[in-house]
Amino acid sequence: MITDRWLTPPGPRLTLNRGQQIVAAVLVLLLISLVAIGFQSSADQNAYSQHSARSEAASTNTFFTVRDSLTYIDRAQQYLLGAVPRRDVQLARAMLAQRLRVIAANGVTAADSTGPDYRTALTALDAVIAQAPPGLLPANQRTRWADAILPRSEALSERAHELAADNQAEQHRLNRLAERNLLRGRVVQLAMLISALILAGILLWWVAANVVRQYRTARRAFDEERQALRQTESRLDRISALERGQAQILERIATAGPVSSVLRQIVQLAAEVSGAPAVRMSIGRRTVIYPPGADVSGTPAWTGVVTDNADGAGTLAVSGDAESLDELAVTALVRCRDLVTLSLERDASARRLSYQASHDALTGLANRSLLLTRLSKSLVLSRRRGTPLALLFCDLDRFKMVNDSIGHAGGDQLLIEAARRLSGTVRESDTVARLGGDEFVVLCPELPDRSHAIALAERIRAALSAPYTIDGKEAFVDACIGITFADESTVSGHELMREADVAMYRAKLTDGDHINVFDSLLEAEVAQRLDLDAALRHAVERDELRVSAQPIVMLNTGVITGFEMLLQWHRPGQPVLYPGSFIPLAEDNGLIVEIGRWVLYETVQTLARWRADGLALDLTMSVNVSPRQVREAGFADEVLDLLDAAGLPPEALIIELTEHALVDLRVAHPTLARLREAGVSVSLDDFGTGYSSLTQLRTLPVDQIKLDRSFAAALDQGDAKQRAVVQSVVALASALSLDLVVEGIETLAERDTLLDLGADKGQGFLYHQPVLWDAARATLESGGVCAVPADGGYTGLASSDAPSPSASTNLRSHRPSPSVST
Ligand code: C2E
Ligand code: MG
Ligand code: MG
């Protein structure tokens, strides 16, 4: 902003041109001459006064000279007549002499004043007196002397009077002359003065007129200049308003001000700086008009294209007269157009960032932060409305294995597909979030009741566990789902999340129970499991793990053909733990690799010892192996080296892998192929609980099938369908030349049915519990035959290190009902 002080120019300045300068000089000269005339006149006056004074002095002298002359003559006569003493004559002569000296002292000589006749007469008189004898003259002489002086004194007196008369006449003449001169001088002075005044007036008028004309010209120039300055000032004001507005808007854009208000500000700035009557910005569904409600229907005076990645292109249009838009207005509009585009871009990127901050990058589902935000809002609503709120925590089972086997890119595809299935299973109002890895959470803010939540969890599980086709290959995962419900006591979303997590964890630990609803008792159990996890890490180094062996026998004779190695955890002062309660933990935390290596070592060393002692010479040792072990680089070499070092043939070892594990490992895993080539057998454990169809069996790289114990149990219950299935499996195994072992035979009835169906090998409590090495060795030493109890079944523990039925039920996994597709 330019202040008036700077904008107001100085007024016009008076300058004289050459003509005016000459006139001014003449005027000055005129004034000087007037002054000179004045001085001259007063000098004349003085001269006249002095002359008058001198004339007067001369008259006075003449008068006194005459008087004193007469006095002297008189005294001289009286002296000569004896009337007065000589002294009186002398006194009168002294007076006259004095008078003549005074005249001389005043610059007028006695001669000038008196003339030669006077002086002759006086000299003659002086001579007479001087010759007169001193003292009073005698009377006879008086007359002679009187006659001697008389003509002289008369001449003197006469001359004195003439002098006086002449003097006076001259005086008058001079006076008249002086007066005339003075008068003439005055008249000339006055005439000159008047003409000087007239001339001065004319000149003054001329100068003044000139000055006024000049002033007017200068004033006009000044006004024009001021006008130009005002225009510059207004232009500068507009520029500064534009700069200021632009800076404010840029700041608001930078600080992520609400886009609608920023756009309003830009449109207002465009209207104000361009001076247009109305400005409209429209893009997509967004329209901003300034002034609000203005009519913008006419042909625009100026239009600029604005762009937005989301909405495409729009316009910034200015109504009014195109002529009225000056260069600055157009510049302002171009800048405003760019600001609109910038603001829209920033808004889009802010939205993108906010989306990225609240969503999972891989699946596009909500992330933890967004889930927690919605959860706390839903909690408030749920409390207010009294509607139940459920949170489902889903974790994909065996995803890590799938991920390892199909690669991370494949794992990502599986997660994306799982997210899609999850979203397709729930309602619009539900929130599906991914917390990372294979953990998903579903927030259901409006569920009529608990049974609906459980039904939903089942649907979710069904959707998630259906086969996935990744890069043309099939992959299988399952899901464990923990459910929790908010109630009045629910404090926070975090608490609810923890509860659902605990329930899920519990579902994961309980093999076969994939869905679990949170309860507070369960929480304590999970905490215990977590303790267990920590303790397991020290179990190996503290030598708390034991390998138990369960004989595998010929069903009809009970003759032992081999042993299955089953792990046990003997914790000091606590009951023995069986694999179902800690193997999943070891799988999760990765300890299974180390533990599995140790089991293999123990097994090979024990068998070597037994064989060295002439025992178990043709028996096999079946070791359960985790797919993680198989995936360890060098596993095959390790196993073969171990056997070699112990001097055992590879045929003495069978490794058991579950159906799931085999599928996860991919059928043609090189490690398995290498082991089989070397002579190690691969057994398909828990057959019937996985997804393989009977027809797929022939493609699996296995030498043996272990039919899951649930089949044996079902036979005991006289299930005709299961019977048929078992029969098919027996037939298939025989057709494919696969060894078949039936697990979990507990009763004679089961054994008999199995024998009827053609099965010949099996294991189970009917024959023998899993026992520690010494007990197993004892069994071998006593003949290597497992006697079947005469009363027809398993009744309890045969040895202290065997699990009780109840322990088996509680601590071992509950397997799902058999499902073999054909
Ligand atoms: P599995 O390989 O199917 O082992 C057979 C399971 O059935 C054993 O349970 C055994 O005690 C149990 N069993 C045997 N006969 C009967 C019976 O007549 N009735 C019943 N109800 N159960 C019977 P255990 O010892 O609890 O092992 C559970 C699972 O843990 C094993 O299933 C195996 O998959 C896994 N496992 C055991 N030891 C190891 C190991 O060293 N490494 C690995 N990776 N897994 C192991
Ligand atoms: Mg097994
Ligand atoms: Mg099994």
Q: How is this structure best described in words?
A:
With 822 residues, the protein is α/β, with parallel strands linked by helices. The protein has 4 domains: 18-216, f41 fragment of flagellin, N-terminal domain, CATH 1.20.1330; 256-356, no CATH class; 359-518, Reverse transcriptase/Diguanylate cyclase domain (Alpha-Beta Plaits); 535-781, Alpha-Beta Barrel (TIM Barrel), CATH 3.20.20.450. Helix content is 59%, strand content 14%. The strands form 4 sheets. Strands 12, 13, 14, 15, 16, 17, 18, 19 and 20 form a 9-stranded mixed sheet that branches. The chain has a 5-stranded mixed sheet with strand order 6-7-5-10-11, with helices on both faces. The protein has a 4-stranded antiparallel sheet with strand order 2-1-4-3, with helices on one face. α2 (18-80) packs antiparallel against α3 and α2 (18-80) packs antiparallel against α5 (139-254). Bound molecules: ligand C2E and magnesium ion (2 copies). Ligand C2E binds at residues 550, 565-567, 578-580, 583, 592, 596, 599, 624-626, 656, 685-686, 709, 743-746, 763-765, 770, 808, 812. Keywords: Membrane, Transmembrane, Transmembrane helix. Pfam families: EAL, GGDEF.
